[in-house]
Design goal:
By secondary structure, the protein is mostly helical. It has two domains: 196 residues; 80 residues, no CATH class. Helices cover 72% and strands 2% of the residues. A three-stranded antiparallel β-sheet has the order 2-1-3. About 4% of the residues have low confidence.
């Protein structure tokens, strides 16, 4: 079923796809030997290998029996990176056409989290592997230094030592994750503002569409209310002071008075007077409730 496209879907899915592509590119950043070896070192076969070459499990960097396990581990890490990148692309591109906005965001988030975890794992394994390769080289050079009485050019040692640029994978994924979070928040803020604006416009339209009460209708309602208040005053439900106060408000200070509510208040006063006379409530309770109702605006 074809799903509706939206800016949020496209932006978040695009960032997720970029995360996967950068993870794939990061496989190119791996172990590198310094090619500027001094001629007196007489060392041949220096090489530079990346994540793609490690996938063959036959690396020159891990040729010895002691380092063979690390070679396999690096191959597994590289395959994990490759699978994560391809899977991430599928999780971000396909939902654009097959899923709704909510599910697309969820899958894009999962993709970015997997890519970030893969990049961190890639870096950790890379650091461990480089340290393992460099350890015997340093030991050998230290032993040679002791044999020669400390007189040795350490440039050969520096040329032999391995290093890795796998940290770029983590940096790139951190940047993408930051962009993803910021874009998501920005889109949410814009949606809230749009919803508030639309809601405000709808309310304003409803207020404008509501027919205004005419002057004659308003005055007739006031006269009707004055009559009702006079009746409940004569029955002893309210005092003369209550009646005079209501009369003044209704006649001269009625700009903010809800006339329909006033009619309901009169009926409520009558109902409470009835249950008071039936001894359902006490005199004090009745008086407190009456004051509360009369103060209602």
């Amino acid at each position: 079923m074809k799903q509706k496209m939206s800016i949020k879907k496209i932006v978040l899915a695009s960032i997720g796809a970029l995360s996967s592509l950068l993870l794939l590119i990061s496989m190119s950043f791996f172990y590198v030997y310094n090619p500027s070896l001094p001629s007196e070192a007489n060392i041949a076969g220096t090489t530079a290998e990346n994540g793609f070459s490690m996938m063959g499990f036959e690396s020159l960097l891990f040729a010895t029996d002691e380092l063979e396990f690390l070679g396999v581990l690096m191959g597994i890490a590289s395959y994990f990176m490759l699978i994560g990148a391809i899977g991430g692309l599928a999780l971000t591109v396909l939902p654009l056409f097959l899923c709704d906005e909510k599910k697309t965001k969820k899958l894009s988030t999962i993709s970015i989290i997997i890519n970030a975890c893969a990049s961190v794992l890639y870096l950790i394994v890379g650091i461990v592997a480089v340290s393992s390769i460099n350890a015997p080289i340093k030991e050998a050079m230290e032993a040679l230094s002791e044999t020669t009485g400390g007189v040795i050019d350490d440039s050969a040692t520096k040329a032999l030592l391995c290093s890795t640029a796998a940290f770029w994978a983590v940096i790139l994924q951190a940047l993408v994750l930051t962009a993803y979070i910021l874009c998501d928040k920005l889109i949410k803020t814009q949606k809230v503002q749009t919803a508030v604006a639309v809601d405000g416009a709808d309310k304003a339209e409803k207020v404008e569409s509501k027919p205004a009460i005419s002057y004659a209708e308003k005055e007739n309602k006031i006269i009707e209310l004055l009559t009702k208040y006079k009746e409940i005053y004569m029955k002893g439900i309210i005092t003369i002071m209550d009646f005079e106060k209501k009369k003044y408000i209704l006649m001269f200070d009625n700009k903010h008075i809800n006339l329909d509510l006033e009619g309901q208040l009169v009926e409520t006063l009558v109902a409470y007077r009835k249950i008071y006379e039936q001894e359902i409530i006490t005199h004090d309770e009745y008086e407190k409730k009456k004051l509360q109702i009369l103060a209602t605006k």
